[in-house]
Amino acid sequence: MTCQEGQALQEATAWQANISRLYRLASFLAVVTILYNILEGAVSVYFGVDDDALSLFGFGLDSFVEVVSGIGVWHMIHRLRRFPESDPDRFERTALRITGSAFYILSIGLIVTGLLNLYRGQRPETTFWGIAIALISISAMWILIRYKMKVGRQLHSEAILADANCSRVCLWLSWVLLFASAGYELTGIGGIDAVGAIVIAALAFREGREAFEKARGETCSCGSCGADSFGIELNKR
User: Fold this and answer.
1) Which residues, including other chains, have CB under 8 Å from residue 189's CB and lie 6 or more apart?
2) What crossing angle do the helices spanning 54-82 and 158-187 adopt, rounded to 10°?
3) Higher pLDDT residue, 16 or 140?
4) Which residue from 151, 143, 161 is spatially nearest to 24, judged by alpha carbons?
5) Is the pLDDT of residue 34 over 50?
């Protein structure tokens, strides 16, 4: 083996080791997202029910739906790591259909309940926990998006970049919850919480529609185009 061949082999080995490290990091971020959504969903639903805060309750249910989506993303990352040229499998498409159905059900329930609350003039006891959870969620989502974007760019992976873009929707939901919760605490107008829940329902409906379209391979993933169910690898190695 010549010196040039040896150097090329070392560079190839180092490159492969770096790719493996990045995929492990992507998998770790997917697991963190799943666990965070489980915790966030449980806490939000508990305080949403306890305080009669519909926007917080809806936010928590949305987090639980995101768990299913997150499992699909985790599975996708492992598939791409082993078979970079492979197409979305049955597990990913099923996860998307379950996610889409759950988002549709959630959006309908929140809209109906929100309108009823507006009609009845129902007010939450407090939205303090909505403010606290929203602030934590905004910080957590910002960190996750930053690292997912970093990993996606280094891997030249539109799939991982698409997942980061999907996390931005969670960030928008957190801002909606913050404005609705803070608005009620500042004004005492119960309708603000109901309107916040309806806006969350609209975003959930959008997520559900995108999930079904991605399951059929018809659209971009949260703004990132591609044929992969969770966003395709346009720059495959």
Assistant:
1) 183
2) 170
3) 140
4) 151
5) yes
